[in-house]
Amino acid sequence: MRYAISEARKAVGRAAENPPVGCVIIAASGQLIGAGHTARTGRPHAETVALAMAGQRAHGGTAYVTLEPCAHHGQTPPCATALIEAGIRRVVIACQDPDRRVNGKGVTMLRAAGIDVITDIGSDMAYSVMQGFLHRMVHKRPLVTIKTATSLDGGIALGDGRKVWLTSPPMRRYVHVLRSKSDAILTGIGTILADDPEMTCRLPGLEHDSPSRFILDSQLRCPPGAKILQNNNAVPTVIFCAETASPDARIALEKSGAVIVPMAVDKAQDDGLQKRLDLQKILRYLGDAGVNNLLVEAGSSIVTSIIADDLVDVIHWTQSQHLLGSDAIPAISPLKLVALPEQTRYTETHHQQIGRDRLTILAKSL
Ligand code: AOF
Ligand code: ZN
Protein backbone atom coordinates (compact mmCIF):
# COMPACT_ATOMS: atom_id res chain seq x y z
CA MET A 1 0.00 0.00 0.00
CA ARG A 2 2.89 2.35 0.71
CA TYR A 3 4.03 1.81 -2.84
CA ALA A 4 0.50 2.43 -4.15
CA ILE A 5 0.40 5.67 -2.13
CA SER A 6 3.74 6.77 -3.59
CA GLU A 7 2.23 6.14 -7.06
CA ALA A 8 -0.81 8.26 -6.07
CA ARG A 9 1.49 11.11 -5.01
CA LYS A 10 2.81 11.35 -8.57
CA ALA A 11 -0.69 12.32 -9.75
CA VAL A 12 -1.30 15.18 -7.27
CA GLY A 13 -2.05 18.36 -9.25
CA ARG A 14 -2.04 16.34 -12.48
CA ALA A 15 -5.30 14.40 -12.45
CA ALA A 16 -7.63 17.29 -13.39
CA GLU A 17 -10.85 17.03 -11.34
CA ASN A 18 -10.20 13.39 -10.52
CA PRO A 19 -8.57 12.23 -7.28
CA PRO A 20 -4.92 11.16 -7.49
CA VAL A 21 -5.06 7.38 -7.03
CA GLY A 22 -2.31 4.73 -7.05
CA CYS A 23 -2.57 1.00 -7.77
CA VAL A 24 -0.10 -1.87 -7.45
CA ILE A 25 -0.67 -5.47 -8.68
CA ILE A 26 1.10 -8.42 -7.09
CA ALA A 27 0.98 -11.80 -8.88
CA ALA A 28 -0.05 -15.00 -7.07
CA SER A 29 3.69 -15.80 -7.00
CA GLY A 30 4.34 -12.65 -4.95
CA GLN A 31 6.02 -10.82 -7.81
CA LEU A 32 5.20 -7.15 -8.35
CA ILE A 33 3.82 -7.07 -11.89
CA GLY A 34 2.01 -3.75 -12.26
CA ALA A 35 1.96 -0.24 -10.83
CA GLY A 36 0.35 2.98 -11.94
CA HIS A 37 -1.50 6.13 -11.03
CA THR A 38 -4.43 8.17 -12.37
CA ALA A 39 -3.29 9.47 -15.74
CA ARG A 40 -2.76 13.10 -16.67
CA THR A 41 -6.13 14.87 -17.05
CA GLY A 42 -7.74 12.15 -14.92
CA ARG A 43 -8.11 9.16 -17.20
CA PRO A 44 -7.45 6.27 -17.51
CA HIS A 45 -7.82 5.48 -13.82
CA ALA A 46 -4.97 3.97 -11.79
CA GLU A 47 -6.31 0.38 -11.90
CA THR A 48 -6.49 0.38 -15.70
CA VAL A 49 -2.88 1.58 -15.94
CA ALA A 50 -1.59 -1.03 -13.46
CA LEU A 51 -3.65 -3.88 -15.01
CA ALA A 52 -2.34 -3.00 -18.49
CA MET A 53 1.22 -3.35 -17.18
CA ALA A 54 0.46 -6.66 -15.45
CA GLY A 55 -1.34 -8.21 -18.44
CA GLN A 56 -2.31 -11.93 -18.18
CA ARG A 57 -0.19 -12.38 -15.08
CA ALA A 58 -2.78 -10.45 -13.03
CA HIS A 59 -4.93 -13.61 -12.95
CA GLY A 60 -5.07 -14.86 -9.35
CA GLY A 61 -3.19 -11.79 -8.07
CA THR A 62 -3.78 -9.05 -5.50
CA ALA A 63 -4.50 -5.37 -6.26
CA TYR A 64 -3.60 -2.62 -3.78
CA VAL A 65 -5.58 0.57 -4.48
CA THR A 66 -5.54 3.85 -2.54
CA LEU A 67 -9.22 4.56 -3.34
CA GLU A 68 -12.17 2.23 -3.69
CA PRO A 69 -12.34 1.13 -7.36
CA CYS A 70 -15.10 2.94 -9.21
CA ALA A 71 -18.41 1.20 -9.94
CA HIS A 72 -19.86 3.64 -12.46
CA HIS A 73 -19.76 3.97 -16.23
CA GLY A 74 -18.36 7.50 -16.36
CA GLN A 75 -15.84 8.59 -18.92
CA THR A 76 -14.27 5.11 -18.60
CA PRO A 77 -15.80 1.69 -17.74
CA PRO A 78 -15.87 0.75 -14.01
CA CYS A 79 -12.50 -0.23 -12.50
CA ALA A 80 -14.29 -2.84 -10.34
CA THR A 81 -15.33 -4.60 -13.57
CA ALA A 82 -11.78 -4.37 -14.96
CA LEU A 83 -10.37 -6.01 -11.79
CA ILE A 84 -13.01 -8.77 -11.91
CA GLU A 85 -12.39 -9.46 -15.60
CA ALA A 86 -8.63 -9.60 -15.04
CA GLY A 87 -9.16 -12.46 -12.56
CA ILE A 88 -7.87 -10.57 -9.49
CA ARG A 89 -8.49 -12.65 -6.32
CA ARG A 90 -7.94 -10.08 -3.60
CA VAL A 91 -8.31 -6.29 -3.47
CA VAL A 92 -6.82 -4.19 -0.65
CA ILE A 93 -8.27 -0.64 -0.42
CA ALA A 94 -7.10 2.37 1.61
CA CYS A 95 -10.22 4.59 1.54
CA GLN A 96 -13.81 4.53 0.43
CA ASP A 97 -14.75 6.80 -2.49
CA PRO A 98 -17.13 9.57 -1.30
CA ASP A 99 -18.31 10.15 -4.90
CA ARG A 100 -22.05 9.37 -4.83
CA ARG A 101 -21.70 7.20 -7.95
CA VAL A 102 -19.31 4.89 -6.05
CA ASN A 103 -19.49 5.20 -2.23
CA GLY A 104 -19.38 1.50 -1.29
CA LYS A 105 -20.73 0.17 -4.61
CA GLY A 106 -17.22 -0.69 -5.84
CA VAL A 107 -16.60 -2.91 -2.79
CA THR A 108 -20.05 -4.53 -3.18
CA MET A 109 -19.40 -5.35 -6.84
CA LEU A 110 -16.01 -6.91 -6.04
CA ARG A 111 -17.41 -8.98 -3.16
CA ALA A 112 -20.38 -10.13 -5.27
CA ALA A 113 -17.86 -11.49 -7.76
CA GLY A 114 -16.25 -13.59 -5.01
CA ILE A 115 -13.19 -11.34 -4.55
CA ASP A 116 -11.66 -11.07 -1.10
CA VAL A 117 -11.80 -7.33 -0.21
CA ILE A 118 -9.85 -5.74 2.65
CA THR A 119 -10.50 -2.06 3.45
CA ASP A 120 -8.97 0.75 5.56
CA ILE A 121 -5.33 -0.14 5.04
CA GLY A 122 -3.09 2.99 5.10
CA SER A 123 -6.17 5.21 4.89
CA ASP A 124 -4.65 8.20 6.75
CA MET A 125 -1.78 8.46 4.30
CA ALA A 126 -4.03 7.92 1.28
CA TYR A 127 -6.48 10.55 2.55
CA SER A 128 -3.72 13.11 2.92
CA VAL A 129 -2.63 12.57 -0.71
CA MET A 130 -6.25 13.05 -1.88
CA GLN A 131 -6.92 15.91 0.52
CA GLY A 132 -7.75 18.39 -2.26
CA PHE A 133 -10.31 16.12 -3.93
CA LEU A 134 -11.94 15.17 -0.63
CA HIS A 135 -12.07 18.81 0.40
CA ARG A 136 -13.82 19.74 -2.86
CA MET A 137 -16.32 16.90 -2.47
CA VAL A 138 -17.24 18.02 1.05
CA HIS A 139 -16.96 21.83 0.86
CA LYS A 140 -17.64 22.39 -2.87
CA ARG A 141 -14.48 24.46 -3.17
CA PRO A 142 -10.76 23.66 -3.61
CA LEU A 143 -8.30 23.14 -0.79
CA VAL A 144 -6.73 26.60 -0.60
CA THR A 145 -2.98 26.84 -0.01
CA ILE A 146 -1.26 30.18 0.37
CA LYS A 147 2.41 30.52 -0.41
CA THR A 148 4.11 33.54 1.02
CA ALA A 149 7.77 34.60 0.98
CA THR A 150 8.82 36.97 3.73
CA SER A 151 11.88 38.36 5.43
CA LEU A 152 12.79 37.30 8.95
CA ASP A 153 10.67 40.20 10.21
CA GLY A 154 7.65 39.35 8.07
CA GLY A 155 8.09 41.92 5.26
CA ILE A 156 7.65 41.30 1.54
CA ALA A 157 9.11 44.54 0.09
CA LEU A 158 11.05 47.55 1.30
CA GLY A 159 9.19 50.49 2.82
CA ASP A 160 9.60 52.51 -0.42
CA GLY A 161 7.93 49.64 -2.34
CA ARG A 162 11.22 48.36 -3.84
CA LYS A 163 11.18 44.60 -4.34
CA VAL A 164 14.11 42.53 -3.16
CA TRP A 165 14.64 38.88 -3.89
CA LEU A 166 14.19 37.38 -0.48
CA THR A 167 14.46 33.62 -0.80
CA SER A 168 17.35 31.86 -2.55
CA PRO A 169 17.25 29.61 -5.68
CA PRO A 170 16.70 26.27 -3.83
CA MET A 171 13.54 27.68 -2.19
CA ARG A 172 12.37 29.13 -5.49
CA ARG A 173 12.73 25.65 -6.98
CA TYR A 174 10.64 24.29 -4.12
CA VAL A 175 7.92 26.79 -5.04
CA HIS A 176 7.95 25.50 -8.61
CA VAL A 177 7.43 21.96 -7.27
CA LEU A 178 4.51 23.31 -5.23
CA ARG A 179 3.06 24.84 -8.41
CA SER A 180 3.41 21.49 -10.19
CA LYS A 181 1.41 19.84 -7.38
CA SER A 182 -1.42 22.37 -7.74
CA ASP A 183 -4.29 22.22 -10.22
CA ALA A 184 -4.63 25.99 -10.37
CA ILE A 185 -2.86 29.12 -9.21
CA LEU A 186 -4.60 32.34 -8.18
CA THR A 187 -2.98 35.75 -8.22
CA GLY A 188 -4.01 39.40 -8.30
CA ILE A 189 -3.65 42.29 -10.69
CA GLY A 190 -1.31 44.03 -8.21
CA THR A 191 1.23 41.21 -8.55
CA ILE A 192 0.87 41.21 -12.38
CA LEU A 193 1.50 44.97 -12.60
CA ALA A 194 4.40 44.91 -10.12
CA ASP A 195 6.25 41.71 -11.14
CA ASP A 196 4.89 40.57 -14.54
CA PRO A 197 5.19 36.91 -13.48
CA GLU A 198 4.59 33.88 -15.72
CA MET A 199 3.23 31.75 -12.86
CA THR A 200 4.31 28.54 -14.57
CA CYS A 201 6.39 25.63 -13.39
CA ARG A 202 9.77 25.89 -15.10
CA LEU A 203 11.76 23.15 -13.37
CA PRO A 204 13.45 20.86 -15.88
CA GLY A 205 11.23 17.79 -16.24
CA LEU A 206 8.16 19.46 -14.74
CA GLU A 207 7.47 21.99 -17.51
CA HIS A 208 4.27 20.17 -18.46
CA ASP A 209 2.90 20.32 -14.94
CA SER A 210 2.05 24.01 -14.71
CA PRO A 211 -1.27 24.76 -13.01
CA SER A 212 -3.96 26.72 -14.87
CA ARG A 213 -3.74 30.41 -14.03
CA PHE A 214 -6.48 32.63 -12.58
CA ILE A 215 -6.22 36.38 -12.01
CA LEU A 216 -8.40 38.62 -9.84
CA ASP A 217 -8.66 41.83 -11.85
CA SER A 218 -11.98 43.58 -11.20
CA GLN A 219 -11.32 46.52 -13.60
CA LEU A 220 -9.43 44.51 -16.29
CA ARG A 221 -6.21 46.47 -15.86
CA CYS A 222 -4.09 43.48 -16.97
CA PRO A 223 -1.91 44.55 -19.95
CA PRO A 224 -2.63 42.37 -23.02
CA GLY A 225 1.15 41.84 -23.30
CA ALA A 226 1.55 40.48 -19.73
CA LYS A 227 3.73 37.38 -19.48
CA ILE A 228 0.99 35.49 -17.65
CA LEU A 229 -1.09 35.59 -20.87
CA GLN A 230 1.63 33.93 -22.91
CA ASN A 231 1.67 30.22 -23.52
CA ASN A 232 -2.06 30.04 -22.82
CA ASN A 233 -2.68 27.21 -25.28
CA ALA A 234 -0.76 24.90 -22.99
CA VAL A 235 -1.57 26.66 -19.70
CA PRO A 236 -4.90 28.50 -19.81
CA THR A 237 -5.29 31.90 -18.17
CA VAL A 238 -8.65 33.05 -16.82
CA ILE A 239 -9.31 36.59 -15.59
CA PHE A 240 -12.09 37.24 -13.09
CA CYS A 241 -13.46 40.78 -13.37
CA ALA A 242 -16.43 42.83 -12.17
CA GLU A 243 -19.53 42.83 -14.37
CA THR A 244 -18.94 46.55 -14.92
CA ALA A 245 -15.40 46.15 -16.37
CA SER A 246 -14.66 47.86 -19.68
CA PRO A 247 -15.84 45.92 -22.78
CA ASP A 248 -12.86 47.30 -24.77
CA ALA A 249 -10.38 45.94 -22.24
CA ARG A 250 -12.21 42.64 -22.41
CA ILE A 251 -11.89 42.42 -26.20
CA ALA A 252 -8.16 43.25 -26.05
CA LEU A 253 -7.49 40.62 -23.40
CA GLU A 254 -9.52 37.99 -25.23
CA LYS A 255 -7.39 38.68 -28.31
CA SER A 256 -4.37 37.80 -26.15
CA GLY A 257 -5.98 34.43 -25.43
CA ALA A 258 -7.33 35.11 -21.93
CA VAL A 259 -10.73 33.80 -20.90
CA ILE A 260 -12.72 36.57 -19.13
CA VAL A 261 -15.21 35.59 -16.44
CA PRO A 262 -17.35 38.40 -14.94
CA MET A 263 -18.07 37.76 -11.27
CA ALA A 264 -20.12 39.31 -8.51
CA VAL A 265 -18.59 42.04 -6.40
CA ASP A 266 -18.47 41.57 -2.64
CA LYS A 267 -21.15 44.10 -1.65
CA ALA A 268 -19.82 44.50 1.87
CA GLN A 269 -16.46 45.64 0.49
CA ASP A 270 -17.59 47.75 -2.48
CA ASP A 271 -16.42 51.30 -1.85
CA GLY A 272 -17.06 52.37 -5.45
CA LEU A 273 -13.38 52.62 -6.37
CA GLN A 274 -11.68 49.39 -5.37
CA LYS A 275 -14.21 46.73 -6.25
CA ARG A 276 -13.44 43.53 -4.41
CA LEU A 277 -14.58 40.36 -6.11
CA ASP A 278 -16.52 37.93 -3.99
CA LEU A 279 -13.92 35.33 -2.99
CA GLN A 280 -16.49 32.81 -1.80
CA LYS A 281 -18.15 32.85 -5.21
CA ILE A 282 -14.80 32.60 -6.95
CA LEU A 283 -13.77 29.56 -4.93
CA ARG A 284 -17.15 27.99 -5.63
CA TYR A 285 -16.59 28.61 -9.35
CA LEU A 286 -13.16 26.95 -9.12
CA GLY A 287 -14.67 23.99 -7.24
CA ASP A 288 -17.32 23.58 -9.96
CA ALA A 289 -14.54 23.75 -12.55
CA GLY A 290 -12.91 20.72 -10.87
CA VAL A 291 -9.98 22.45 -9.15
CA ASN A 292 -8.97 20.26 -6.21
CA ASN A 293 -5.79 22.08 -5.11
CA LEU A 294 -5.57 25.87 -5.43
CA LEU A 295 -2.33 27.70 -4.77
CA VAL A 296 -2.59 31.42 -3.98
CA GLU A 297 0.53 33.42 -4.83
CA ALA A 298 -0.48 37.01 -4.40
CA GLY A 299 0.29 40.27 -2.67
CA SER A 300 -0.80 41.38 0.73
CA SER A 301 -4.26 42.69 -0.20
CA ILE A 302 -5.51 39.36 -1.60
CA VAL A 303 -3.71 37.37 1.10
CA THR A 304 -5.34 39.58 3.73
CA SER A 305 -8.82 39.31 2.18
CA ILE A 306 -8.70 35.55 1.83
CA ILE A 307 -7.45 35.11 5.40
CA ALA A 308 -10.06 37.55 6.72
CA ASP A 309 -12.75 35.54 4.91
CA ASP A 310 -11.43 32.43 6.66
CA LEU A 311 -10.85 30.62 3.36
CA VAL A 312 -7.22 29.50 3.82
CA ASP A 313 -6.64 25.83 4.61
CA VAL A 314 -2.84 25.52 4.34
CA ILE A 315 0.01 28.04 4.50
CA HIS A 316 3.44 27.44 2.97
CA TRP A 317 5.49 30.17 4.56
CA THR A 318 8.96 30.59 3.13
CA GLN A 319 11.18 32.87 5.14
CA SER A 320 14.58 34.35 4.30
CA GLN A 321 17.25 35.52 6.73
CA HIS A 322 16.96 39.18 5.73
CA LEU A 323 15.61 42.00 7.81
CA LEU A 324 13.59 44.60 5.93
CA GLY A 325 12.93 46.98 8.78
CA SER A 326 9.86 48.26 10.48
CA ASP A 327 8.60 50.29 7.51
CA ALA A 328 8.62 47.23 5.22
CA ILE A 329 5.41 46.16 3.46
CA PRO A 330 4.02 43.30 5.55
CA ALA A 331 2.87 40.00 4.03
CA ILE A 332 -0.50 40.54 5.60
CA SER A 333 -1.79 44.11 5.65
CA PRO A 334 -2.96 45.38 8.97
CA LEU A 335 -5.73 42.99 9.76
CA LYS A 336 -8.37 44.06 12.17
CA LEU A 337 -8.48 41.30 14.69
CA VAL A 338 -12.22 41.56 14.85
CA ALA A 339 -12.28 40.40 11.23
CA LEU A 340 -10.68 37.11 12.20
CA PRO A 341 -13.08 34.38 13.21
CA GLU A 342 -12.22 33.57 16.78
CA GLN A 343 -11.63 29.93 16.03
CA THR A 344 -9.03 30.29 13.28
CA ARG A 345 -5.65 28.89 14.27
CA TYR A 346 -2.92 27.40 12.17
CA THR A 347 -0.84 24.53 13.45
CA GLU A 348 2.66 23.82 12.17
CA THR A 349 2.69 20.45 10.40
CA HIS A 350 6.22 20.58 8.97
CA HIS A 351 9.33 22.73 8.93
CA GLN A 352 12.52 22.41 6.97
CA GLN A 353 15.60 24.35 5.99
CA ILE A 354 15.84 24.74 2.19
CA GLY A 355 19.08 26.37 1.12
CA ARG A 356 19.46 29.47 3.31
CA ASP A 357 15.73 29.77 3.92
CA ARG A 358 13.17 28.23 6.19
CA LEU A 359 9.94 26.57 5.11
CA THR A 360 7.08 26.26 7.57
CA ILE A 361 3.88 24.45 6.56
CA LEU A 362 0.82 25.23 8.64
CA ALA A 363 -2.65 23.77 8.40
CA LYS A 364 -5.88 25.20 9.74
CA SER A 365 -6.67 23.59 13.04
CA LEU A 366 -10.25 22.56 13.47
C1 AOF B 1 -10.82 4.86 -9.63
N1 AOF B 1 -9.50 4.98 -9.94
O1 AOF B 1 -7.69 6.22 -10.47
C2 AOF B 1 -9.67 7.35 -9.94
C3 AOF B 1 -11.05 7.21 -9.57
O2 AOF B 1 -15.26 10.86 -14.73
P1 AOF B 1 -14.71 9.50 -14.48
O3 AOF B 1 -15.43 8.41 -15.19
O4 AOF B 1 -13.22 9.44 -14.70
O5 AOF B 1 -14.96 9.18 -12.93
C4 AOF B 1 -14.48 10.06 -11.97
C5 AOF B 1 -14.67 9.48 -10.57
O6 AOF B 1 -13.94 8.26 -10.45
C6 AOF B 1 -14.12 10.39 -9.48
O7 AOF B 1 -15.05 11.33 -9.04
C7 AOF B 1 -13.78 9.40 -8.40
O8 AOF B 1 -14.94 9.01 -7.71
C8 AOF B 1 -13.28 8.20 -9.19
N2 AOF B 1 -11.82 8.30 -9.39
N3 AOF B 1 -11.56 5.97 -9.39
O9 AOF B 1 -11.35 3.74 -9.57
C9 AOF B 1 -8.90 6.17 -10.12
N4 AOF B 1 -9.09 8.57 -10.12
ZN1 ZN C 1 -12.04 3.75 -11.90
What can you see in these coordinates?
This protein has two domains: 1-131, Cytidine Deaminase, domain 2, CATH 3.40.140.10; 140-364, Dihydrofolate Reductase, subunit A (3-Layer(aba) Sandwich). The longest helix has 12 residues, at 169-180. A nine-stranded mixed beta sheet has the order 11-10-9-8-12-6-13-16-15. The radius of gyration is 23 Å and the shape is elongated. The protein has helices at 2-9, 46-54, 79-85, 105-112, 123-129, 131-139, 169-180, 189-195, 247-255, 279-288, 300-308; strands spanning 22-26, 32-37, 62-67, 90-95, 116-118, 143-150, 155-157, 184-188, 212-216, 237-242, 259-263, 293-296, 314-319, 329-330, 345-354, 357-365. By secondary structure, it is of the alpha/beta class. Bound molecules: ligand AOF and zinc ion. Ligand AOF is lined by residues 18-19, 21, 38, 42-43, 45-47, 67, 69-70, 74-76, 79, 97, 99, 102.
For this structure, the CATH topology of the largest domain is Dihydrofolate Reductase, subunit A
Instruction: Give a count of the beta strands, DSSP E runs of length 2 or more.
Output: 16
Q: Encode the helix/strand succession as letters.
A: HEEHEHEHEHHEEHEHEEHEHEHEEEE
Q: Output the structural class.
A: alpha/beta
How much β-strand is present in the residues?
Answer: 15-25%
* Average pLDDT level: 92
Order of neighbouring strands in the sheet with most strands = 11-10-9-8-12-6-13-16-15
